[in-house]
């Protein structure tokens, strides 16, 4: 078994690749035509939460079936059930957007997920005291907190952007601050559970490492965590298909609309699912390069980079054009704080696990 040399700078860079894929994974949805949401969602979920995790593990984990036979079955079940909860959180996220908009939902849910997904596992394992005694711990924890603040500022900027662009049109129909905040809080908590699902699968990952999986070892965890989320999506999509009588769309597009094609819709859904899975393929590669001292910070790094890159892409494509000066200043401050958070996390990881350790 070849030891993996910690390289925090490379680790953060790989996390950035994954976050970049995640920031753009739902872009193909804009071009899907004559499919109901549930049809598109189930096809893309089949790839990102079921097929790709299995294919990825088969391609990268040596002696996969031996690994699965030796790994603790209770951890497989625990990771799977936490994946189910994560899937519920994804639906709560979508419902929250209907009530309070994308920006507020994103800032509350992702900010809360970033903190909980990072700090709860060490608390549960009783590792906080040990972590606080390590070199660079103050930098890492400050980076986590700065990331949460930066996400909140970006969320406030996004909400201000919505007001600027919708000036004179009033609050959108169906707006409900109470319902939206409750759902976004639920989404944040359950989104963090995905991080717990990966944490629960660590003994399985350790078995994969013993069989020579090396830097690819984390791919075995997605078989369980992602499949749980797929089951949630499958149940909900079947419910919607029965309600909307849309199951026939898998073979024939809706005739009430024009444009699009069945092969193109399948390709776009495949692309969405592949981009989503790709984010965690690179998440694993970044995670193992951080080293063991501050591996728990991977979740915060991923969430912060996701918000940073998605807002950076929005600026690049001039989505903030037409906003007031105050709104533009706020998003600028938010992005600056996020950049500072990433630098703090990277430096703290470097101090805790310098190259060559």
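-> sequence recovered:
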């Amino acid at each position: 078994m070849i030891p993996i040399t910690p390289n925090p700078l490379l680790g953060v860079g790989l996390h950035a690749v994954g976050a970049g894929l995640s920031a753009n994974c739902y872009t193909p949805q804009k071009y899907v035509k004559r499919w109901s949401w549930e049809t598109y969602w189930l096809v893309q979920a089949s790839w990102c939460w079921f097929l790709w995790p299995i294919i990825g593990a088969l391609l990268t984990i040596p002696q996969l079936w031996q690994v699965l036979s030796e790994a603790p079955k209770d951890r497989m079940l625990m990771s799977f059930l936490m994946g189910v909860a994560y899937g519920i959180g994804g639906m709560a996220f979508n419902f929250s957007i209907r009530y309070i908009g994308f920006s507020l939902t994103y800032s509350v849910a992702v900010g809360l997920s970033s903190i909980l997904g990072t700090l709860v596992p060490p608390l549960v394992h009783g590792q906080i005291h040990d972590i606080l005694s390590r070199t660079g711990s103050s930098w890492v924890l400050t980076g986590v907190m700065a990331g949460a603040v930066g996400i909140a500022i970006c969320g406030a900027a996004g909400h201000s952007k919505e007001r600027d662009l919708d000036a004179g049109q009033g609050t959108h129909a169906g707006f409900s601050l109470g319902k939206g905040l409750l759902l976004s809080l639920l989404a944040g908590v359950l989104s963090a559970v995905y991080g717990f699902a990966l944490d629960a699968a660590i003994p399985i990952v350790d078995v994969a490492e013993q069989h020579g999986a090396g830097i690819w070892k984390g791919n075995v965890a997605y078989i369980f965590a992602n499949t749980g989320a797929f089951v949630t999506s499958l149940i909900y999509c079947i419910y919607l298909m029965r309600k909307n009588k849309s199951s026939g769309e898998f073979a024939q597009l809706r005739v009430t609309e024009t444009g699009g094609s069945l092969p193109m819709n399948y390709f776009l859904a495949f692309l969405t699912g592949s981009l989503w899975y790709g984010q965690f393929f690179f998440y694993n590669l970044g995670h193992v390069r951080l080293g063991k001292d501050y591996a728990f910070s991977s979740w915060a790094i991923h969430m912060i980079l996701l918000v940073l890159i998605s807002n950076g892409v929005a600026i690049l494509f001039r989505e903030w054009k037409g906003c007031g000066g105050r709104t533009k200043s706020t998003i600028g401050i938010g992005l600056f704080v996020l950049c500072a958070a990433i630098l703090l996390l990277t430096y703290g990881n470097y101090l805790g696990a310098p190259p060559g350790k």
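The radius of gyration is 21 Å.
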